[in-house]
Design goal:
heterodimer; A: Rossmann fold; 5-stranded parallel sheet; two-stranded antiparallel ribbon; 47% helix; B: mainly alpha; 18 helices; 66% helix
């Protein structure tokens, strides 16, 4: 019996002892990936390593990181710009990114906050893989994420556990380690234009439902107000920008006009500028979009030029 | 409680320690503890159905005693009928009631009569098909005077409810398992290590092979109308590996767990996909059920003796009943009938015992003839599995037709409807190939990695750690054990 128990204990010990180095190894390679988890790792790395080095930060979701070109803004504003848009996640996670960015970087002069129908909603931890390499024993990540589904408490505490069954993450980490040459960066300073033509997302959505429906979340609204107050106290100017949506897409969003009005009210209350592109001529040209909610590269460049000329006077 | 759950990972060591360190001096208390632990294990799923388990235990314990102590034939038959009635009654009500009612309604409506009997919202109690058959084996064996009736209610309860095999077998025989609860167990280090090894291999089969195959097989079976022949065939093949990995994996964990408690359970699988004909396949697949039907149905019906028609009748009966045992659906009956049709030529030509040895014994690779025979048998059983997995006969027939109609030789890209992208699970293919190689190398053992016993310690440990790592990397698609539904 004693021999058996010693063997079992030894095997368990080896398994647990190897968990930490394996965790470090996989996390190390995964962080270097420029393609996994919607290409969010380069942005997280820059945030956590204090490498944003910009006076202007752009916040938002996919409608931020695919539509606000930092190079074009930089050319018109003569100030370095970084796009911190986080794919698919509404304001609470954007605020988490904001907090970490402030913690590890010199604070910006201006924040361009992309707002839209999804900003003040709430959803599950979409694209949870983006947090994997950073969340072990990190209280910031735990505090921001533990109320969401996706990870359990032990995932934050026990090395390697959160990688259980995540074959794509292992595959990516090994691929980065073995083929670093293939790991080209395509999302630069947080931005990547989408060189795509119009797809059938809107038509398919219309076949399935009457409207895109978004429920405004009170907690997110409260947090948004708090964010604007904090920025104001810290001397950071915030510009709210509602970027273009293809006109048919606007009509397909339930209560869209009310959502735009909500941001106008918020901007007035906090005395910040609100720039509304929902009636801009871009919204009537399908050629600038790859789906009703997202501009393609050409549309994004045109939109960013327009935006740049409009906010020059903010600096 | 699932074997591949955190709950079980906590439950098992606790039971193990109490069993060996606290209660090892008193056999009765140890047996009582097994009963309590088994009841907790079962109640984790749904405590209400413990009552059915208790009914089965009590009915068969007393029926067994009555059969054993009564000399008159009529009385013995009466008590045997009570036992059969209680167990088949429970099974019939909980598993088959709605099936029969639905089919009566359809049959009457076919003849223009509308009837409206009540169908009930019945939950199928986990493991009912397994423990009812196990307790039945006891009363039948007592009736046949193969064993003496037992007077120890606790030992009998432990025999019926022993948690490693309670919900999905192996369906034990009283002749094998019951005596083990009547004598003192001593801890055997070699046996326990072997048990752990078998548990590890079972987990690999379940978590890595079965669950990952299930992920893709479900995609294909759930959208079968969208796919070409090659994808449908891939779906059938993946299901073949899913059900084997799932059920034989469960059996390995059950047998391994029992070994930790000093109990030997019967073997349930013997590398069935290396069979050279369908008869050999059925000697190697779900052995505990196949032999149950052989001993308690096939042989009493006359077995393979008698005229050709008697042989055909008996084979058809045993396979169709076996199919029906799996579930109240015509698909299972069709699956049983297909296997019977494949089996009948062998029994008529007296070739059903041609392949009773281990294939390619003593050689690394099989002869070309054996290879062809294995491949042919595997593909025929795989086609039959389509009926087992399909929701309806219509679906199964459409899938079989689809396999041979549309682009059978194209590359089988699977459409993932969630992401709207096409996938080819190359890593899974590689895992299946490695799995088959390991199984082939270990085919003359009880389970594939049993051969590690007595080998170099470092190599053994490297293999264990590698298996744990593979389980960790590929363990993302957790699924219920298929045989829980039976």
């Amino acid at each position: 019996m004693k021999r058996f128990l010693v063997k079992i204990a030894l095997l368990t010990l080896i398994v647990f002892a190897s968990a930490y180095p394996l965790d470090k190894l996989i996390s190390h390679w995964l962080k270097k990936s420029n393609s996994f988890a919607v290409k969010e790792y380069p942005v997280w790395n820059d945030i956590l390593n204090g490498k944003l080095n910009s006076d202007i930060w752009i916040y938002g979701s996919s409608r931020a990181w695919t539509q606000f070109d930092p190079d074009i803004l930089q050319d018109s504003l003569y100030k370095p710009v970084y796009n911190l848009g986080i794919d698919g996640l509404p304001f609470p996670m954007q605020y988490f990114r904001h907090s970490l960015a402030l913690k590890y970087n010199k604070r910006p002069r201006i924040i361009i906050q992309s707002v839209d129908f999804g900003t003040l909603t709430r959803r599950d931890l979409y694209n949870a893989d983006q947090f994997l390499p950073y969340m072990l024993w990190d209280n910031d990540f735990y505090d921001a994420m533990h109320e969401y589904k996706g990870f359990n408490k032990l995932d934050y505490k026990i090395p390697f556990l959160r990688y259980y069954g995540n074959y794509p993450a292992f595959k990516e980490a090994i691929s980065v380690a073995l083929n670093p040459g293939k790991n080209k960066a395509t999302r630069v300073r947080g931005y990547q234009g989408q060189d795509l033509n119009w797809n059938d997302d809107l038509e398919r959505a219309k076949a399935m439902t009457d409207y895109y429906r978004f429920v405004i979340d009170n907690g997110s609204v409260k947090l948004f107000h708090q964010f604007l107050e904090e920025c104001s106290s810290a001397g950071i100017k915030v510009v709210l920008v509602y970027s273009p949506i293809y006109i048919e897409g606007q009509e397909f969003i339930e209560g869209h006009k009310n959502i735009v009005e909500l941001y106008k009210e918020i901007a007035t209350k906090h005395n910040c500028r609100f720039i509304d592109f929902t009636k801009d001529s871009i919204c009537y040209e399908k050629k600038y979009f790859y789906n009703s909610l997202h501009l393609n590269k050409t549309g994004a460049e045109l939109f960013t030029q327009k935006l740049g000329s409009m906010i020059k006077d903010e600096l | 409680m699932l074997f591949n759950s955190v709950d079980f990972a906590i439950f098992l060591p606790i039971v193990f320690f109490i069993y060996w360190f606290v209660l090892n001096r008193n056999l009765n208390v140890q047996n009582l503890f097994i009963v309590i632990a088994s009841f907790i294990f079962y109640a984790w799923w749904d405590w209400r159905f413990l009552s059915l388990l208790v009914i089965s235990i009590v009915a068969d314990f007393f029926a067994g005693k009555k059969i054993g102590t009564t000399e008159t034939k009529n009385s013995r038959i009466f008590w045997l009928c009570i036992s059969i009635g209680v167990n088949i009654g429970l099974l019939g009500f909980f598993k088959y009631y709605n099936f029969f009612v639905d089919n009566f309604i359809e049959a009457f409506s076919f003849f223009g009569k509308q009837i409206n009997p009540r169908t009930l919202n019945i939950i199928l109690p986990v493991g009912i098909s397994f423990y009812t058959f196990q307790t039945l084996s006891y009363t039948i064996d007592v009736y046949k005077r193969k064993i003496e009736p037992i007077n120890d209610m606790i030992a009998f309860s432990a025999f019926v409810s022993f948690f490693p095999q309670l919900v999905a077998g192996p369906i034990e025989r009283a002749t094998n398992l019951l005596p083990q609860f009547s004598k003192k167990r001593t801890f055997n280090d070699t046996k326990a290590v072997d048990g752990m090894r078998q548990i590890l291999w079972g987990l690999f089969k379940k978590i890595v092979i079965a669950d990952n195959c299930a992920y893709y097989a479900d995609m294909i079976f759930n959208h079968y109308a969208d796919y070409s022949g090659s994808v449908l065939l891939l779906g059938a093949l993946l299901f073949a590996f899913q059900i084997y990995g799932d059920f034989s994996g469960y059996s390995d964990i059950a047998i391994g767990t029992a070994r930790l408690f000093g109990i030997d359970l019967m073997r349930n699988f013997a590398f069935p996909y290396f069979s050279r004909d369908i008869a050999e396949f059925w000697r190697r697949w779900h052995i505990s059920l196949t032999t149950w039907f052989r001993d308690y149905l096939y042989i009493p019906l006359g077995g393979s003796r008698g005229s050709a028609w008697i042989k055909i009748r008996n084979v058809m009966i045993i396979f169709i009943v076996s199919g029906f045992w799996h579930g109240a659906n015509w698909t299972f009956i069709a699956w049983g009938a297909i296997n019977a049709v494949l089996f009948i030529p062998l029994i008529l030509l007296n070739k059903n015992r041609n392949n009773i040895d281990t294939v390619a014994e003593g050689r690394l690779i099989p002869s070309f003839k054996d290879f062809l025979a294995i491949t042919l048998t595997f593909f025929t059983t795989t086609l039959a599995w389509i009926f087992f997995r399909a929701e309806s006969i219509t679906q199964a027939v459409a899938m079989v037709k689809g396999i041979f109609n549309k682009n059978l030789f194209s590359i089988p890209y699977i459409l993932n409807h969630d992401t709207n992208s096409y996938v080819l699970p190359n890593a899974l293919f590689l895992l299946i190939v490695i799995f088959l190689i390991v199984e082939w190398i270990g085919r003359d053992s009880e389970f594939a990695i049993e051969k590690l016993k007595g080998k170099n310690v470092l190599i053994n440990w490297a293999v264990y750690l590698l298996i744990i790592l593979v389980i960790f990397v590929f363990g993302g698609h957790k699924q219920q054990f298929i045989y829980f539904q039976f």
